[in-house]
Amino acid sequence: MDQLDRKILALYQRDTRRIAESIGAEIGLSAAGVQRRLKRLRSDCVITAEIAVLDSGAVGVPITCLVSVAMASGSAPRNSLDDFKRNMKSVNEVQQCYHVTGSTDFLLVVTAESMEAYGEFARRWFESNEYVVRYETQVVLDKVKVGLSVPIREDQPNR
């Protein structure tokens, strides 16, 4: 990845609808050159997805919760962690799931249509799981900043 790739990524990740001609004009590259580089960045799995970001409240899912989950240590079989990861990947309400260090094992971003719906989710996935020893939920009051953009330094050495 060179400096031009980094410039393209910095612009593209903020607006994937931006046309190659516009990106090229800003960084001094032809539209075809931008398109070739984007194609390579996709095939190299640098660009892993191109998605629409929705307003969750506008589509009837106004509740967002941050949930920390602690799993049983020592006695829990290794596959219980793998099972939990696999389950969280498949559940629509889970926007993000991180296996982390510290006093808990997982941090989740969970969406719900209502607090009742979140309660049902928690009973199903945490309270009925014999390996979940504790979970703590924080309800989001205000989404101050939401995003997945990665800070890209254009002056990093080529890789």
Question: How is the topology of this model organized?
Answer:
Layout: H1 3-12, H2 20-27, H3 31-43, E1 63-71, H4 78-90, E2 94-99, E3 106-112, H5 115-127, E4 132-139
Antiparallel strand pairs: 1-3, 1-4, 2-3
Helix pairs in contact: 2-3
Q: How would you describe this protein?
A:
The chain is α+β, with helices and mostly antiparallel strands and 159 residues long. It folds into 2 domains: 3-43, Orthogonal Bundle (Arc Repressor Mutant, subunit A), CATH 1.10.10; 63-139, Lrp/AsnC effector binding domain/regulation of amino acid metabolism (RAM) domain (Alpha-Beta Plaits, 2-Layer Sandwich). 36% of the residues lie in helices and 19% in strands. It has 5 helices and 4 strands. It has helices spanning 3-12, 20-27, 31-43, 78-90, 115-127, and strands spanning 63-71, 94-99, 106-112, 132-139. Strands 2-3-1-4 form a 4-stranded antiparallel β-sheet, with helices on one face. A hairpin with a 6-residue loop joins β2 (94-99) and β3 (106-112). α2 (20-27) packs across α3. The longest helix is centred in the first third of the chain and has 13 residues, at 31-43. The termini are close together. The mean pLDDT is 93.
Oligomer: single chain
Q: Strands of the largest sheet, in order across it?
A: 2-3-1-4
Shape: elongated
Largest sheet entry:
4 strands, antiparallel
Radius of gyration: 20 Å
Name the CATH class of the largest domain: Alpha Beta
What is the structure about, briefly put?
Helix content is 36%, strand content 19%. It has 159 residues and is α+β, with helices and mostly antiparallel strands.
